[in-house]
Amino acid sequence: MTAPVSSSGYATNSGVTTAASTNAGDNTGLSSQAFLQLLVAQLQYQDPSQPVDTSSFMQETATLTQVQTMESNSTATTGLLQAQQAQSAAALVGKSVSYLDANGNAQTGTVASATISATPPTLQIGSADIELSQIQKVLSS
């Protein structure tokens, strides 16, 4: 059984359901695994009388490499952000800060400790655990 093929030689309906087909409007969800599945489906259902030319195949392989590189960069950037947040939280221990409490009221207190294993890091100010993002101001000691 072969899938219908467009005039460009690409399969138009491979019967493969992937993240790319379910998130047609959102290309950010296309992982390298989904891209590879699409590439394999394209090769599997191509028209033997009009095979995909090698330049198109090489371009798609290069695109796969770019997707994998972007995923790797995203993972590295996320790790760097977490490390920077942990460092910022640790640097605030012993400092007086101004923050918004759960009710949205401005409060002031001294940071007793930082929990950096949580994402995002939290600061212990009095009896409250405050997320790093809630800190409004660092006051002079």
Secondary-structure blueprint:
Layout: H1 19-22, H2 32-44, H3 54-91, E1 96-100, E2 106-115, E3 122-125, E4 128-131, E5 135-139
Antiparallel strand pairs: 1-2, 1-5, 2-3, 3-4
Task: Write a structural description.
The chain folds into 2 domains: 19-83, no CATH class; 87-139, no CATH class. The protein has 3 helices and 5 strands; from the N terminus they run αααβββββ. Helix 2 (32-44) packs antiparallel against helix 3 (54-91). The model is unreliable at 1-25 (pLDDT under 50). Strands 4-3-2-1-5 form a 5-stranded antiparallel beta sheet. The protein has helices spanning 19-22, 32-44, 54-91; strands spanning 96-100, 106-115, 122-125, 128-131, 135-139. It has 141 residues and is α+β, with helices and mostly antiparallel strands.
Amino- and carboxy-terminal Cα gap: 75 Å
Give a short account of the largest sheet: 5 strands, antiparallel
Poorly predicted runs: 1-25
Series of H and E elements? HHHEEEEE
Shape by Cα distribution:
rod-shaped
Provide the descriptors you would attach to this structure in a database record.
single chain, 141 residues, alpha+beta, 2 domains, 5-stranded antiparallel beta sheet, 3 helices, 39% helix, rod-shaped, disordered N terminus
